[in-house]
Amino acid sequence: MSAPWKSAEWNLLFRELPRAHRGLARAWWALSVLRALLPAALVIATGALVGAVSAGGRPGLSLALVAATSILILVLSPVHDAVSTNLGAHVGADLHRRLLRAALEPAGIAHLEDPDLADEFTLARDFDLGITGPPIRLCMPFVANGLVELGSGLAAAAILFWYQWWAPLLLVASWTATHRLLRESTVWRSWRSEEVVRAQRHADYAYRMAVDVPAAKELRLFGLGGWTVGRFGRYRRELLDISLQAMRLRERSLLWAALAALAGNGAIVATLAAGALSGRVTLGRLVVFIGAVIGAAVLGIADFDWWFDTAARPPTVVDSLERKMPSFGALPSGAGSARGLPRREIRLREVTFGYRGGSPVLAGVDLSIPAGSSLAIVGQNGAGKTTLAKLLCRLYDPDGGRIEADGIDLRELDIGSWRSRLTTVFQDYVKYELSLRENVAPAGGSDADVEWALRQAGAADLAADSAGGGPGVVPRVGAGGGQGIDTVLSKSYAGGIDLSGGQWQRVALARTMRAVRQGAGVVVLDEPTAQLDVRGEAEIFRRLLDATRDVTTILISHRFSTVRHADRICVLEGGRVVELGTHDELIARGGRYATMFTLQAARFAADSGTPKSDGTEAGADGGSSGALPAGAGLGP
Ligand SMILES: Nc1ncnc2c1ncn2[C@@H]1O[C@H](COP(=O)(O)OP(=O)(O)OP(=O)(O)O)[C@@H](O)[C@H]1O
Ligand SMILES: [Mg+2]
Fold first, then answer.
1. Which residue among 285, 307, 328 closes a domain?
2. Most informative mutation of 112, 365, 385 for ligand 1 (most atoms within 8 A of CB)
3. Can you give the residue range of the structural domain that contains 621?
4. In-domain check, residue 505
5. Is residue 102 assigned to a domain?
6. 391 Cβ neighbours under 8 A, 6+ residues apart
7. Does some domain include residue 511?
8. Which among 31, 79, 484, 539 has the fewest CB atoms less than 10 Å away?
């Protein structure tokens, strides 16, 4: 184990201080040094006072020094505390900023989908919640006092140079030995161990189950409240046990610590006493040296280790995460402009991919998507459809093969430039806790623009302020708050409201429609209509068709009523494209697509009592046949 003051973790903490606030950090250090020297100054002043009095001299100056140092010791302590708390709050805020930057900096998302790193992000976040230790702003005053104790102990020991050159060395050595032995009992080294992180992850999960709305609903229905509370309690207790066990006082250490302290102090005090008795040490000097011996005791018994270690944890985790980011989420970005791409086609050549180098999800996908056409991708759950969408958006890069736009590997294009060509609704699209306007146009947009997009997505009523409605009309969000497109879509805000699943999906589609109007050339829709009612789906489709007439559209869906209108359909299975063609071609082939289509059609026929199982339009529309205009297609 390295000496405590050389600890890399402490260095990270001290390096963070000026980063968080230069002025406060300077004041904090200045106060630390001053407060560390004051006890030694008081001991010297007291010795001078006693010496002056015992020699019958004038004690005026030494008395003033005693008074000044005493007052400063008293006054500077709360000032230092206040500076420390303030600095601690800045450090906490700065670490959060670094944490967010670390999470957002990589162009890809591998770092956020890695279980180990997810745990580290939880651990890093926990420092502010006081889960494995007090939050840093509460630690900082104790770290300050720890530094003062350390400094004052050394300063006190240094006074003994005036007595004997070996005395401070002996004193520091004996207290350091004591401190190291006690440290064994107070330092928690396993705070980043697998078992700690695991207990923390489970406790955190149980907590979120209790407070997050989606989970809270199921907990009630399944009667899992007691189970969740029990689980939370069990893992929190486990965490506590681990930490207490790690920091348990050990008798053997205590015994050796006491012996080390006794040996050093005993030797110095004994020679001092002998010197005083023989008259070699004056009364004034005796007071100073005894005071110094007592003052140095903080070196052995102070608990600064615990506070330094606790406060050093947050910067340590943040630093470790920052250093890991480049190897996880970083993706190479070329310099090529993607402006106007693709003019000809998007091409996947022998694309292979597996998460974290695991078994391949995509195992040689070969596919051409002509620019301006629509391609639907179907396949069973877990076939790799969403994964393919992620690769197209360059959230990951293929392990093998390449994806090209007009023959240019996407990796040769500037990543931002390529992404500006895309607009996507992912399966797990984001419901921003922002206004309706910001949900549709996150980077800002005019009223007319936003309202147009909402109309295209069949969500115009969401923005309407005035009364209206009727059967099948989406309820207005503005009706309650009266704020129209500026209504916040979250119940957490005054006047805010929440939407139904299908309403949210319309808002996400409106976001895409607007992006297309702004010039996006590739639309990737991953289950865009899964939550829409049948009538809504048909209507949206018609509008989507208008809006995306000239763009390349990739549509992932399990709804064959949606899929069949794409120009071409590909079936993904076993990591490969196993069928590709138009709806009619694939039905005629009688393969995978035809089977899936017929199955869904038959199910609808059974549900509706319609005797259709041949895959004709009524059945395959999953019930939307009446509403969907015949011949509606995605592409031009
Ligand atoms: N972040 C991830 N880390 C590891 N494995 C993943 C990750 N995301 C998906 N997978 C795995 O990759 C495979 C393909 O997943 P993907 O989400 O692409 O399927 P999908 O075809 O979109 O399925 P669905 O129809 O259910 O949406 C699955 O076996 C899944 O378990
Ligand atoms: Mg998916």
1. 328
2. 385
3. 339-429+520-636
4. no
5. yes
6. 351, 353, 362, 397, 398, 403
7. no
8. 79
Of the chain, the end-to-end C-alpha distance in Å amounts to 70
SS3 127: coil
Pairing state of beta strands 408-409 and 422-425? unpaired
How many Å lie between the centroid of ligand 2 and the Cα of residue 107? 21
Query: Which DSSP category does 249 fall into?
Result: -
Tell me the average confidence (pLDDT) per consecutive run of 10 residues in the chain, 636 residues long.
Answer: 57 94 97 96 92 84 93 95 95 92 88 82 75 83 92 92 90 84 71 82 85 80 88 89 75 77 88 91 90 88 79 89 84 90 95 90 96 93 95 94 96 94 90 91 88 88 53 42 78 82 91 90 88 74 73 90 88 96 95 90 66 40 34 32
| Both structure tokens of 466 | 């005035």
CATH code of 602's domain? 3.40.50.300
Q: Tokens for 618?
A: 């009524």
439 in a domain, yes or no?
Answer: yes
Neighbours of 486 (CB within 10 A): 17
* Contact between 197 and 132 (Cβ < 8 Å): no
| Alpha carbons 461 and 476: distance in angstroms, whole number | 5
Q: Whose CA is nearest to atom 29 of ligand 1?
A: 382
490 with 587, same domain? no
pTM to 2 decimal places? 0.78
Ordered alpha helix ranges (H), 5-21 = 8-20
